[in-house]
Here is the input.
Amino acid sequence: MKRRLKQSPQLTETKFQKYYAGEWKDGCSDRRGDFPRRYVNGCLSVATSMNFPNPERFLFCLGVAVLVAKAALAAGDERQVLPPSVVPSHYDLTISPDAAALVFKGSVRIKVNVTEPTTEVVLNAKGLTFDHAALDGVGSQSVTLDSKLERAKLVFPKVVDAGVHELEIDYHGPILKGTYGFFAMEYDSPAGKRVTLATNLEPTGARMFLPCWDEPALKATFTVSVDKPKDRVAISTMPIAKTTSQAENLERVVFAETPKMSTYLLFLSIGDYERVNRIADKTDVGIVVKRGDLPRARYALDQACQLLHYYNDYFGFPYPLPKLDLIAAPGEITGGSMENWGAIFYSQHHLLFDPKTSTERDRQYLFLVVSHEMAHQWFGDLVTMQWWDNLWLNEGFARWMQTHAADALHPDWRTGLQAYAIFERGKRADAKPSTHPILQPVSSAEQAQQAFDAITYNKGAAVITMLEWYIGADNFREGVRHYMRAHPYGNTSDTDLWSEMQKVADKPIVQIENDFTRQPGLPLIQVKQADEGSELTVARFYENPSAESASKQSWHIPIAISSTEDSDLTMLLEGQAKISAPAPLVNATALSYTRVFYSPKQTEALVARFPKLAPAAQLNLMNDAWALGEAGYASAADLLDYIRALPAESDAIVWTRACELVVTIERNYSASPEQNACRHFALAILKPVATRVGTSVQPKEDPAVTSLRMDVWRAQARFGDAAALTRAQEVFAAENGSQEERRAALQIVGRAADKATFDKLLAKARATPDPLDRMRILEALAEVADPTLAARFTEIALSSDAPSGTAPSLLDAAAENNPESVWKMLAPHFDDPNLPIDQSIRGLVISGIAGRSALPIRIDDLRRYADGHIAADARQAVDAAVASIGLNQRVRERAIPQINAWITKQTAK
Here is the structure.
């Protein structure tokens, strides 16, 4: 033992935390963060010989790490990273696209630093053909392309000494038809067909655009040039430095050199664009849209300028580039929108706002997406995660920040209350057997792609929200500012951020953060009456507890507890605790990342208190009640007790969630007398709310009421209210009413459509050239209840009738009501190379559709698809879908009968 200790680097808890984030470099890990084989078997022995303030906790964390490392090494699961012997410092890139032929030529001159003598240069490339390669003017002996690792190896005739060199590569490649990599998006315009060329490179798409070192930590500067038609506009990260005429109608645009940045954040687009701009905090802020869309750009420009000022202040670090463009795609792109530095690329509905047709919900949603992507200009672009396992440093923070910015700039929206929907999506994903730690191992391009999931985004945002509440908003902001000032243009792990927070707050932030990011799972606080008080016990929540073995996990949970409206307690809960209140409201702020399970008598007491509780507590109790009922911890009918106790005048955001939950319940029925009874109950519950909100927008009304009115109307029509359906048909035919009324009427008519109405809506969509307006009609058609028409819609979503990139979202919407129809129509196309779903997300889309089903056969179908199409180490979405199918079965078998019994009992009263 002494001998091993002498030869090993000193191991401390701080160093272990940094190792786990891939940052400890004292011999136990290199820049890859790999756990060397020689340390795997000895680490626990080393740890036991050392005196830590909390050795049991440290040993638990280290034990988990060793088990993960052993499993990874046994499977040969090591990060697919490039050799460190050659790294880039600057790219000089020239692109010459041929949009008609869907090909492009590229030429790149890369300044590289050779750290040790070598005859080889290895870099990333995918789908590219090398025409010429040379180092300092000496041509390569050979170029070998590895399609599996997505690399090119260049071998040179003599040894290249350490130092600075220039690598030259001329190459060509395809312009793709999807929306990932370098691609073309076609759309109709008043002047005829138009094509937009653009890049979308996260996480590993840059290698499809240029030969490069496509890893987030290998930052470099870029000078980008492009040859384009003179009547088209080119956009990139930086402003245009110069333009020179080329042959015929072409010109070459050269953009200014970028700061040091990651490859996946580079952007280039050529299109028939218009731009409207404004100077905000000395930055040229522009909205770039296809020609004719400038009137729909004004709202985004107003919000972007406000956000830039807000973020400059919040981060304490001014936006570092001279311009910031927000560009609207003529359709949808993979990932929704992309935070390219200085040139954010948005799916059309994320950026375009039409004062004549857009709704209040569109307004708020647009702001959230714009604010999310703009937050990335700091969290992700200026300061970037070291590797994809720390992706939540980008996405969790941006999702948290979108709410923070909305509450600051538009407090009347009460976005913080609406954000409980984000937390709930994270919790639902975390309860599945497919869950993973927020800080998850990522070794390959496929694994990097699947890391963009509900755990990274939504659990990440929920944990950050909890920590901000525990730390305090001012201390939290100060910690963020310290972090930004310490790491501009650099790469970090989450330990770098939370150590700053801990210094500012003087609380055990790193310990709490470790508990929630380095182990999977959702805590469950069980509340039981004990003597005259209550006993709290922490376990783990599973959506199928009967299939899971007991877990010995533990968390430090910051939590607020209320026994009455005037009695509150805040504590850091670990394991067990006793409190004096016999029927407490645990997680009273609803900001702690946990579920809470009460005894039946305590639930009855909370139902009695429910009308007077704060809206956040009402939301949280309803969400927990449904999740506990689905999983079998409690009766699913507990949710109906809460909804029945909710006064009609309660917060509109709470009623919106109640409405969603009632629709969720109804969706689990097949045609039957029980379904009719459920619908009658739902209509009775909604009637007082419908009376409260009325049928038309009132001056200066709460924006949440504006949105709730449409939700109630749609639900009433779904549940068979003939008057609601008739009114929708009348509004649709007359094309009158407010934006909200027209949109809701369209959706109601689409859901209830027979063949004749379906044909009429489809003809209307085909006659609508604008891709956003067409998308709205197709979204309504996707709602259609008729399974036969849903099958027909699946073919439409895969055809040229659907705007570029919209097939995944349209198919997902159709599958929500008719998963079997969509699956059966889509399955024959799984291997179609022209399927309009990017290969990078095809498995995610197909898994999502299957996960809507409740049929056991769909599990077998999905697994067969995965075996033939998805790498074994990139099947989290498949596993999640399999779990969802099982949950849907159990809800129908167990929860729905409980609800039926409750409704029968209420009807008999």
Summary: The chain has a mean pLDDT of 91. The two ends are 74 Å apart (CA to CA).
